[in-house]
Amino acid sequence: MSNSTTGRHAAPISRDTLVVIPTYNERENLETILRRVLAQSERVDVLVVDDGSPDGTGELADELAAQDDRITVLHRTGKLGLASAYLQGFEIGHERGYAYLFEFDADGSHPAERLPAMIEELDGGADLVIGSRYVRGGDTENWPLSRQLLSRGASIYAGVLLRSKIRDITAGYRGYRAAALREVDLGGVGSAGYCFQIEMAWMFERLGYRVVEVPITFRERELGASKMSSSIIFEAMWRVLAWGIGYRARGVVALTTRR
C-alpha cells in the first residue's frame, strides 16, 4: 500500500488537538466541514484521510491544505475502511505529538460547535469523550424512523450483550486522550466498519478508563450518499454477539475458578 501526506508535519505546542476526518466521495461537504471544525478552537488541527475518492475529494483537500497549515491530508490507495483510517490517523497524531485525537464524520452529521465542550472534558481528566445522542440533552434531527430504530436498537443490543453502561456506544463523534490510546493494544482491533466504534468504546470501558458522554444533536446529512450498508450492520451484529458470549463465558470460568 502506498500512502502520501500533504501539508504540515509538526504541530505547535498550542495546537494540541487533532481531528481525524475519513473521506470517501465527500467533495460536496468537505470545505464546509473543515471550516466549521477549525472555527471552534485555535487548539485544533485537522487530518483528512482520503481513500482515493473518485469524485476529487482528495484533490480538494490538498487545495485547502495549501491554503491553511492547520489542514493536512493523508492519501490512501483505495477504499480501506473506517477503522483503518482512524487507526492510521491516530498513528500520525502520536508521531506529531498531539494530546487529544478526535474522530469526526465528513457528512455534516456531527455538530462541530460541541467540540470545545468535548475538549474541556478531556482537559478535566476524561480518557474518552463521546458525543452522545442518547443522554439528557442529546437528540437527532431529520432522521427517518427506520434509522432511529436501527441506531437505538444497536445501542441497546450492544449494551445488553456487552453489559456496557455507555448510552451511545455506536456514536462516531468522540475524542481520545492520546496517552490512553498508547496504552491499549490497538493491534488487536478486529472491526473494519462502524463496529469499530463499539469495539473501541467497550475496550476503554472494560479497561477502567474514564469515559464521559456529552450531549449532541446529530443531524442527517444534506449532501452526498450514506455509507451505511447491510454488510456493516451484519458485521456489528455478529461481532457484538461473539464478544458478548466470550465475555460472559470468561466471567463464568473466573467465578468457577474462584470457588
Key features?
two-stranded parallel ribbon; alpha/beta; 10 strands; globular; Spore Coat Polysaccharide Biosynthesis Protein SpsA, Chain A; disordered C terminus; 259 residues; 8-stranded mixed beta sheet
What does this structure look like?
- The strands form two sheets. This protein has an eight-stranded mixed β-sheet with strand order 1-4-3-2-5-8-6-9, with helices on both faces. Strands 7-10 form a two-stranded parallel ribbon.
- Helix 1 packs parallel to helix 2 (about 55-65) and helix 5 (about 145-160) runs parallel beside helix 8.
- The protein contains eight helices and ten strands.
- The chain has a single domain (about 5-259), classed as Spore Coat Polysaccharide Biosynthesis Protein SpsA, Chain A (Alpha-Beta Complex), CATH 3.90.550.10.
- It is of the alpha/beta class and about 260 residues long.
- The protein is about 45% helix and about 20% strand.
- The chain has helices spanning about 25-40, 55-65, 80-95, 115-125, 145-160, 180-185, 195-205, 230-259; strands at about 5, 15-25, 45-50, 70-75, 100-105, 130, 140, 175, 210-215, 215-220.
